[in-house]
Design goal:
Layout lengths: L22 H15 L6 E5 L6 H14 L3 E6 L6 H16 L7 H20 L21 H19 L3 E6 L6 H16 L4 E7 L2 H9 L3 H4 E2 L8 H14 L3 E2 L1 H11 L3 H14 L4 E2 L1 H24 L4 H13 L4 E2 H8 L7 H9 L3 E2 L5 E4 L4 H8 L2
Parallel strand pairs: 1-4, 1-5, 2-3, 3-4, 6-7
Antiparallel strand pairs: 8-10, 9-10
Helix pairs in contact: 1-2, 3-4, 3-5, 4-5, 5-6, 6-7, 9-10, 10-12, 11-12, 13-14, 13-16
């Protein structure tokens, strides 16, 4: 079939042609945006899920919803080894500048900018990765102590007050939040708590791997009263059918029910993998209908594409010891697995595996769904490890 008309485009954060199975999360976000805009309490939304379930796609859709409702909003990705302060400073600067545009003078926005200057100057001493330079005088006595948990709330309150004076609302949208440490997460939680207490029109949407829930709970016990944690998981067969069939029919083609079921079985319903199989099945089919034979013929190409990109980019970041640990997990199956079983598979004592396991959690490769258990954060990674390190 015509490659140019292929509706599927698997890629990091690329929106699928049909965003199926996520209506409940988007509805929750839309309600939170509407309530915040009206000065009413709404829990911030933190989307959790494994790699490849479309968390970034959802955040981008929420960003679009915020824009439609007249918000000023900024989206931030929290990579490894970069401080929260360094991430927030340019984003908050951009938000404040948006609030201070136009002919109407916004005294609260100018004050927020002075607070940001003091914050950046004080925090730069502690976090050496703040590069942005903010000229002018700071606001004395606000957000300038150098203590992130004390300063960040002052800064977020100043931003919320600036949004209120402008008659609008502001949204921070943050991806990969599992990379924050407990001190940074605590500061963010305290800040949003104080914003909520003052009923300011500022909200936070975030996303991260499953360990995000535990991170927020360890940081502040009251986090569950501030945040909802909807799970973005694999798609049901019905939702997978919608995700595959609708784009294909929109291009004047068709896919059989057995082909849909075969793709769902092979991918276990994970959205990124559905896109990959849909893409290669389209390319291999004579058309105008994709059948189960086309799916089987496309499977080696889909697996090879995933191995080259989705899996390999994560595998290549690992140390030899980390690779051996994940290989032992893979030999035990999809998981989750007890730490003692992994150590036994490796032929070592369980306490000797702790540093490697901690490093893999920090890199976002595994998480602990329950005490003493370890599971892959990347779906089907056990199969990749079996192919790569049999």
């Amino acid at each position: 079939m015509d490659a140019i008309r292929n509706p599927f485009a698997p890629g990091a954060g690329s929106p699928p042609p049909e965003l199926a199975g996520r209506t409940h999360i988007l509805n929750q976000a839309e309600v939170a945006l509407g309530r915040t805009q009206r000065g009413r309490h709404a829990k911030s939304v933190m989307i959790v899920g494994l790699r490849g379930v479309g968390k970034t796609v959802l955040l981008n859709r929420i960003l679009a919803l915020a824009d439609e409702q007249g918000y000023v909003a900024e989206m931030i990705e929290a990579p490894e080894n970069k401080s929260l302060a360094a991430l927030l400073t340019p984003a908050l600067r951009a938000l404040i500048l948006k609030l201070d545009r136009g002919e109407q003078a916004n005294a609260a926005a100018k004050r927020a900018f002075r607070v940001l200057r003091g914050f950046a100057a004080a925090i730069r001493v502690r976090y050496q990765d703040i590069e942005i330079s903010l000229e002018g005088e700071p606001e004395p006595g606000l957000a300038d102590s150098g203590d992130l948990e004390a300063d960040l709330p002052d800064l977020l309150i100043a931003l919320g007050e600036a949004a209120r004076e402008r008659g609008t609302a502001a949204a921070l949208i943050m991806d990969e939040l599992q990379y924050l440490d407990e001190i940074e997460m605590s500061a963010l939680i305290v800040g949003m708590h104080k914003v909520a207490q003052r009923q300011l029109p500022l909200t936070l949407f975030g996303a991260g791997l499953p360990q995000l829930v535990g991170l927020t709970g360890r940081s502040k016990s009251y986090a569950e009263r501030l945040f909802d944690f909807p799970v973005a998981g694999p798609l049901s067969l019905d939702d997978a059918r919608l995700a595959l069939r609708t784009p294909i029919e929109d291009e004047g083609a068709d896919i059989t029910e057995p082909a849909i079921r075969r793709i769902h079985d092979l991918t276990e319903g994970y959205p990124y993998f559905l896109q990959e199989w849909g893409y290669h099945a389209w390319l291999g089919a004579a058309g105008p209908q994709i059948g189960v034979g086309d799916v089987d013929q496309a499977t080696p190409e889909a697996v090879a594409a995933l191995d080259r990109s989705f899996f390999r980019v994560r595998f290549d970041r690992l140390t030899p010891a980390e690779k051996r640990y994940l290989s032992a997990m893979a030999r035990l199956g999809a998981g989750p697995h007890r730490s003692g079983d992994i150590a036994q598979e490796l032929g070592v004592k369980v306490n000797s595996t702790g540093p490697v396991r901690a490093s893999l959690i920090q890199k976002g490769m595994v998480y602990s769904p329950a005490h003493g258990d370890t599971a892959f954060t990347v779906p089907l990674f056990d199969q990749f490890m079996a192919r790569t390190m049999p």
